[in-house]
Amino acid sequence: MLLPSLSGDVPDRADAVRVDGDVISREALRAAAGAVAADIAGAGTVAVLATPSVATVAAVVGGLLSGVAVVPVPPDTGAAELAHVLTDSGAQLLLAGEPDAPVLADCPIPVVPVDQGRRGEVPTSGPAPSTTGLILYTSGTTGPPKGVLLSHAAIRAGIDAVAHAWDWTDEDVLVQGLPLYHVHGLILGLLGPLRVGSPLVHTRRPTPARYAAAGGSMYFGVPTVWSRICAEPTAARALSAARLLVSGSAPLPAPVFAELEGLTGHRPVERYGMTETLITLSTRADEPRRVGSVGRPVRGVQARLVDDAGAPVPADGQTFGALQIRGATLFDGYLHLPDKTAETFTADGWFRTGDVATVSEAGEYRIVGRASADIIKSGGYRIGAGEIEDCLLTHPQVREVAVVGAPHDDLGQEVVAFIVGEQSLAARTLVTYVEKRLARHKRPRRVHLVESLPRNALGKVQKTTLLSLMESGTLPGGN
Ligand code: MLC
Ligand code: AMP
């Protein structure tokens, strides 16, 4: 059973979930999920408009308890992305706490309103562990986002492994304010507390003031959240009373680690994961936490580093290798893409993460970066350069385009687009163009209109050259 705390056998010590001021008990959540289960009976896959709300929680839980695959849809999604996700996933219904949301105006499938106050019975026979629980859409280097199939068994294994590493129990109160459609906010941050039995306080947005006011024992954040908290020392100091601060989804800068320790007295736990693998490496609640280290494989997971020829690299804390993962938390493949799925696995069954790392003699990993510059991490969001390039190329005034991730103090990286196009083209137009079609965080924060793009002999755009030219202010005809 994925969510034993909702079985009806666990006493309701506190509200199960609080989103901003809206609360729901375990008993009421079970009943609301039961009403959702009745609405979606017979469907194979349902989409959920993943606003940060109790209605979203009821919709996701209703789907999971009835064995229907759930596809969370970002509420800031654009028209093209929404159409892709709904068509590709084959979702038959879309569940929404806000059925009148403008993004659903042209929704091609029936929209079913979710009312957290309704009551129903959840099906008694739970789905088999191999059943797909979630289909999470995630970006690759090229093309539209791919659907990552995650089984109930993988989700269970992933939550249990981190609960073990972090001594997470039902005595904890988890606080987080991350999106309810990615591994971090949804699987770890929502299904985690519902599985462990600890109450969740979701702050709707992860602002320093809201984290400070929440009074939890455990806090989750992406590095941008932690650096913003450090910039507000009074809010940061309020977290001193917590048991554990956890960072993940992108590298935590060393100065943020140090500031957080100075202000809260806590050395944060850093953990590493991916949509395809869930959380696989982590430092522990009961062990020293070193700056820059994402610790060791969690229970049920194995990790290794290999060189270009596939041979193991020495565990000396210095030699770079490609990080590969194996274990119980892995996905079941990309939906409809058996070839892409096969490409990501080695012949002996290890998943190629695409990240480069080192490992020490003691088995502690450090993530060095990504092998491909075409995967951008901005504010903890994984963004494929190719998807944004494809979108921009559909604009009638754009001739050539290159999208890169440029270093950014607050977000880690920011999306920057270099465009060769017609004279009259305005940068602002292109930002809105992307925002309308994809999601808000995918729109470029900077657009440079240039005369040409530097290319190598094979015609491939040299993205690192573009970044250097941008930094030195010498883009060809650039502004
Ligand atoms: C942003 N803004 C822009 C803009 N981009 N304005 C004009 N042009 C652009 N191109 C605006 C925004 O709309 C916002 O305005 C303001 O600038 C600040 O935006 P921001 O800097 O992006 O910050 P914010 O919206 O506050 O978001 C920061 C964040 C968010 C950290 C809260 O990035 C976030 O929720 N990240 C979490 C992503 C995540 O969950 N990743 C996990 C993936 S799972 P306004 O007016 O709206 O304020 C994973 C596995 C694992 O990775 O290991 O966990
Ligand atoms: P996503 O699929 O959105 O979950 O993003 C996964 C990617 O986030 C990984 O491949 C890494 O590049 C990055 N990532 C996650 N956690 C960390 C971390 N602790 N340190 C560095 N990178 C991380």
From TrEMBL:
GO biological process entries: fatty acid metabolic process
One MF term in the entry's GO annotations: medium-chain fatty acid-CoA ligase activity
A Pfam family matched in the record: AMP-binding_C
Domain AMP-dependent synthetase/ligase intervals: 26-335
InterPro entries: AMP-bd_C, AMP-bd_C_sf, AMP-binding_CS, AMP-dep_synth/lig_dom, ANL_N_sf
Keyword RNA-binding: no
This protein's UniProt keywords: Ligase
Domain AMP-binding enzyme C-terminal: residue ranges: 387-460
Stored NCBIfam families: PRK07787.1
PANTHER family per the UniProt record, alphabetical: ACYL-COA SYNTHETASE (PTHR43201), ACYL-COA SYNTHETASE FAMILY MEMBER 3 (PTHR43201:SF8)
Family: Belongs to the ATP-dependent AMP-binding enzyme family.
Protein name in UniProt: Fatty acid CoA ligase FadD36
Protein's organism: Micromonospora jinlongensis
